[in-house]
Amino acid sequence: MKQHWLGPNYTKPGVDGNDVTRTNIPDIRVGYRYETIQDELLNIFSSVAK
Question: Do the Cβ atoms of 40 and 48 come closer than 8 Å?
Answer without folding.
Answer: no
